[in-house]
Amino acid sequence: MKKLLSIVSLVVLSGILAACGSESGASSGSGSDEVTIGYFPNINHVAGMVAEEQNLYEETLPDGTEVNYQYFPDGSAFMTAIETGEIQGGIVGPGPAMNHFTSGADVNIVAAGSTGGTVIMARKGADIEAPEDIAGKTFITPRVGCTHDIQFETMMQEEFGITSDRIDGEMKHVTGKPATYSSMFESGNVDVAAVPEPWASSIESEGTGEVLVQNSNVSFNDKLPAAVFVTSQDLKDEDPGLVQNLVDAHIQATDFINENPDESKEIAINKIKDITDQELSAEVVDNAWDRIDFTYEVNEEILQLFANSSYELQFLEEKPNLEGLVDTTFIEQ
User: Fold this and answer.
1) From the CB of residue 157, how many other CB atoms can be counted at a distance below 10 Å?
2) Which residues form the signal peptide (predicted)?
3) Is this model's pTM higher than 0.85 or not?
4) Do residues 25 and 36 make contact, with C-beta atoms less than 8 angstroms apart?
5) How far apart are CA 50 and CA 317, in angstroms?
6) pLDDT, tens digit (0-9, with 9 covering 90-100), for 165-211
7) Parallel, antiparallel, or unpaired for β 66-71 and 34-39?
8) How many angstroms from the chain centroid is the CA of residue 213?
9) What CA–CA distance (Å, rounded) separates 229 from 150?
């Protein structure tokens, strides 16, 4: 199996994918002999790690299919790779999938990956004891309009009437990789973070920040898919058998996680170290695991509510209609 392990190249990747077209990866026909899967190095994406380590795609795809992997730093780069054919499927947050779909991208959510896992952390020494104290402070999320950003800004606007400077509000917004949040807290560069696991638990362990809002109290909490399995509309239409193979492997990975949590945690620790060069302790992963549910079932209604919130926060220019984004037929086989 060819494994692409260079996380450094991902930063460059996000800038060049649009020029790459679909020269690599599987062809759209049923004779595909190469498939590339993408995911992020975080706990919400453990199904991708398990499927890779357990060779589950090799088991469901036709004999001789070469399976490659790409690891992404953010949802925008991932969705661009889906649209250009650089990857055939994989796991991403619902925010980028929704945003690209409403912008005209022919993509489909064919399964969920997990729910929960977004935690709001405050820097120690930032004089923040409650969400109301965030006014005038700087918060960080992985990307503008990403899943964690929408969850955080929805909560702040609906419950506390506080918005970001992007819409002339009182909070300053910056972006960055979650693995760097602890060091940014330590340096005092940011005050608050909407953090995907396991990085929230890592911040807790390192003592640079503390939980301000548990994931169960963040907007959309455990009902919103924190990760979804996405493929292109073209691939689904032209080779539904291939998409079914991919979804079957993803379902097997999800079942494995729920039936073998200890082994799955070990896989996650090792894969995150391989990809990010950061080793998480068993204690950190245990803590993160408790904040996440691993499921392939998709809640379409909550996705539409999430999309409506993205529009209300002005991440989208038009009120979205997600009809056609979710296709559950592959998980119902």
Assistant:
1) 18
2) 1-18
3) no
4) yes
5) 38
6) 999 999 999 999 898 999 999 999 999 999 988 899 999 999 999 99
7) parallel
8) 20
9) 19
Which positions ≥6 away from 301 have C-beta within 8 Å? none
Residues 271-298: pLDDT tens digits?
Answer: 999 998 888 999 999 999 999 999 999 9
Residue 212 has pLDDT above 70, yes or no: yes
Task: Report the b/e string of 75-92 with b at 16+ CB within 10 A.
Answer: bbbbbbbbbbbbbbbbbb
Question: 326: which residues sit within 8 A by CB, 6+ positions away?
Answer: 108, 109, 110, 298, 300, 303
Taking a C-beta distance cutoff of 8 angstroms, is the pair 114, 46 a contact?
yes
Judge contact between 214 and 290, C-beta under 8 A: no
- Which tens digit of pLDDT belongs to each residue from 49-69? 999 999 999 999 999 999 999
Q: Could you tell me the two tokens for 71?
A: 């690891």
**What is the per-residue burial (b if ≥16 Cβ within 10 Å, else e) of 109-127?**
bbbbbbbbbbbbbbbeebe
Structure tokens, 190:
């940011």
Rounded to 10 degrees, what is the CA torsion of 78, 81, 87, 91? 20
Q: Which domains, and CATH codes, for the chain?
A: 8-116+223-312 (3.40.190.10), 118-222 (3.40.190.10)
3-state SS assignment for residue 304: helix
DSSP code of residue 280: P
User: How many CA atoms, within 13 angstroms, populate the side-chain half-sphere of residue 198?
Assistant: 27
Peptide bond into 225 cis (omega under 30): no
Residue with tokens 């990975």: 253
* Phi, psi angle pair for 54, to nearest 5°: -95, 5
Strands 107-116 and 192-196: unpaired
